[in-house]
Every structure is written in C-alpha cells, then in structure tokens.
Amino acid sequence: MDKLIITGGARLDGEIRISGAKNAALPILAATLLADGPVTVGNLPHLHDITTMIELFGRMGIEPVIDEKLAVEIDPRTIKTLVAPYELVKTMRASILVLGPMVARFGEAEVALPGGCAIGSRPVDLHIRGLEAMGAKIEVEGGYIKAKAPEGGLRGAHFFFDTVSVTGTENIMMAAALAKGRSVLQNAAREPEVVDLANFINAMGGKVQGAGTDTITIDGVERLDSANYRVMPDRIETGTYLVAAAVTGGRVKVKDTDPTILEAVLEKLKEAGADLTTGEDWIELDMHGKRPKAVNLRTAPYPAFPTDMQAQFISLNAIAEGTGAVIETIFENRFMHVYEMHRMGAQIQVEGNTAIVTGVPTLKGAPVMATDLRASASLVLSALVAEGDTLIDRIYHIDRGYECIEEKLQMLGAKIRRVPG
Ligand code: EPZ
C-alpha cells in the first residue's frame, strides 16, 4: 500500500485549483441512469470513488466514454444487468445511489447492502422506506436489496425523513423524477450537493423544486432527455486546503470554488484568526505567520458546520492557542484520527461525542495510519506542521476523496512525497 512521507515546518503559500465535488459527482453519475439517451457529465474529480462508480456501470453493461478532460458520456440504454455486486458496493457505500434510479427507470434493481464503515453503522433504512412509500416491493436477503416497482411504475408519495440523510434524500429524489405524480420529501437534506443533483435532473427535463430547503417537491415526468452538465466545486476539499494554510500560519488562494457553500467553515476560520477575502469563484486565506486560535464547533446538517470538516478542525485546534471543544452529532464513531494524533503529541480528550483539544506549540512527526477519508486528511494537516517526518499508511482512504493531494500540497510549498508500498 502506498504511503505518504511529510516533513513538517513549511509555511504554505500559493494558489491551487479546486476539483469537482465527489459528493455531487456520485449522485449525478447515478442519475444518468434515469436518462433516455446519452448524458455527459464534466468537471469530475480524478478520484478512486469516481472510477469505482464508472466500473460499476461497466459491470452493468454500460460502457461510459471518457474524454481527455475526464468528462464522461453515459448512455443508460445499453444497460444489460440490473445488479450492483457486493465486491464493488463494499468498496464504496455511495453505490447505493443507483438503487432509486434503476427502480424508477428499469422497474427493478438488485443492489448489495452497503456495510457499515469506519465512521459508523451507516444504515440505509430511509432509502428503502422511501422507495416502499412509492409502491416498490423490497426484500433484503443474502446481503442484497431486491427492489421491484409496482405495475405501472413507481407512484409519487409524501415521505418524511426522520433523520436528515444526504444520500437518502438524493436516492428518493431520483426515483421520484420518473414516478407517476407528485412527491413531497420533508425533512430533506439541504446540502449544496443535493441542489446540484436537482439542477442536473432539471437539466434533463425533470421537475424538481425546493432543493436546498427541507421540503423538496418533485413532479414525475414520462422520460428524461440527454444533457451536458458540469459538477459543482468540492466544498470539503476547499475547506481542507484552507485549514492546511491556517495550521502552517501561511497563505493560500483556492480557485474554481464557491465561497457561498461553506459559510459555516469560513466563519470558524475567521474565529481562528484567519484573514479571509473572497471573490465569485475564489477564496484567499492569510494567517500572516500567526498561530491559529482554538475554536469550539458542533457538526450538524447543512448549512451548519459539516461533519466532513470535523477532523480537519481537530488538527487546527491541536496546534492552536487555547482549548477548543469539537462535538460530532452526525456519526457515532468519527474520532479515530484523534488516537493517531496522540502519537504525534496532540493533547485531545474524547468524552462521548465531544473531543476537548488543548493546543500545543508543536507536534512531533510519527508513523500514523489513515482510518477513513477525512481522518486521513487531518493526519496530513497535522504532519504539515509537525517537527520532523510523518509516515502515513493506508492512504488509499485519501485517494478516495482528494485528487492529487501531494501535487497540490507541493504547489503550496509542502514537503510531501508518495512512497509506493
Ligand atoms: C453523505 O453520506 C456523504 N457521502 C458523507 O460524506 C457525509 O459525511 C454525510 O452525507 C453527512 O453529511 C456522500 O454524499 C456520498 P447520511 P450519507 O445518510 O448520505 C443516518 C465523505 O467524507 N441515516 O447523511 O451516507 C446515518 O446513520 C462522506 O465524503 C439513517 O439513520 O450520510 C447518519 O447518522 C463520509 N438511515 C445520518 O443519517 C438512513 O437510511 C447521516 O447519514 C440513512 C442515514
């Protein structure tokens, strides 16, 4: 397995381009299955999860055409099998997103039940109950979700999400796009990636209204047409590189992004003492060489502070002035990076879903292990500011969510290299 070696101490300074959002690209690729013709999706990030989704399509008999800029053309009419196999689904939970579109477009689907993952049990009961509300017959057996639309296809339904679920909202929205009649989703997720998916469905001729609010109304249509769509920028990658500059007391300008989709994160960076300026598609952060101040935060569904930025802010607090409390309310086991940071000298105490972080002036480089996508990014951030070398193992977690992380950090002056394992 590849490893990353990082020598800490460099103050980052420079400009980088932000890639397309992984968590918008995955549902949008799944939604191409709804179309009655070829669809092209651009600005896809070069990530392992994206190639896994494309591989999944290949297994189902759809041969995506990829151009030199990694725009992908998909024609769902060539699909041959309606099964999403376990060996692929187990590597990427987001494969569950093909369930709704397949039942809506082809009348049936067999999708392996995604297991839990490092950060939590990750149930999919809301995905299943939402489709059942639309008339689907669903059995879960042998580790597979077997779904069948009723005679005449799915019917529009009112569905209340008793927990806010991003992919749950996305799956049911996609199914509703081709259902008969109107669907109303209540307590829906408000994440920008949900809005991007709604915009894509509407670009294909769908009728989705209210995305970005907690009530989404979808009027089913007979068919969805070809479209050409460009995925939104990645707000979590944006936040991660801003924190990289913050922990090193440096300066970074992130381009091809959108400052309006991560306001909770920008507020916390200002509280930490960062000097922030923004434009329509860029954000510049400058610490002027200062050490950040510790911040308190609590993760919650959008527009509140995103759980996917929690680990990165633990890295910031670990070397900040003062003590900060970080409360994780979304996932039950999302502090595993803390135990790796202890090996670098971080002073962090975990009490239930709260991590109390007391900043230290310096961390010490050490061999550490990535455990999940955002945890591994936080270890990179801590390594950037630690004394000496840090060796990060199992970085396939990082490659799932961060395009060319070592190249982008090298462009900012970091001493980082990949060691093939
Ligand atoms: C999405 O996961 C993201 N993944 C996650 O990003 C992100 O952390 C998460 O939303 C929260 O923002 C993608 O968009 C591909 P959930 P998702 O369903 O949709 C409970 C990353 O780092 N729940 O919103 O799978 C669940 O237990 C990844 O890029 C149910 O109870 O998360 C959790 O407590 C990690 N039943 C809460 O909802 C369900 O059927 C939120 O989970 C579904 C979810």
Task: Give a description of the structure.
By secondary structure, the protein is an alpha/beta fold. It has helices at residues 22-31, 48-59, 86-89, 99-106, 125-133, 166-177, 192-203, 235-247, 263-271, 310-318, 336-342, 373-385, 396-399, 405-411; strands spanning 3-7, 13-17, 39-42, 65-66, 72-74, 83-84, 108-112, 137-141, 144-148, 158-160, 182-186, 208-209, 215-219, 228-230, 251-255, 275-278, 282-286, 297-298, 323-327, 347-351, 354-358, 367-369, 389-393, 415-419. The strands form 6 sheets. A 4-stranded mixed beta sheet has the order 22-23-1-24. Strands 2-15-17-16 form a 4-stranded mixed beta sheet, with helices on one face. Strands 4-5-3-14 form a 4-stranded mixed beta sheet, covered by helices on one side. A hairpin with a 5-residue loop joins strand 4 (65-66) and strand 5 (72-74). Helix 5 (125-133) runs parallel beside helix 6. The longest helix has 13 residues, at 235-247. It is elongated, with a radius of gyration of 21 Å. The mean pLDDT is 95. The structure holds ligand EPZ. Ligand EPZ binds next to helix 1, helix 5, helix 6 and helix 12.
Number of helices: 14
> What's the N-to-C terminus distance?
4 Å
Compounds present? ligand EPZ
- What is the strand content? 15-25%
Q: Residue ranges: pLDDT <50 for 5 or more in a row?
A: none
Sheet having the most strands? 4 strands, mixed
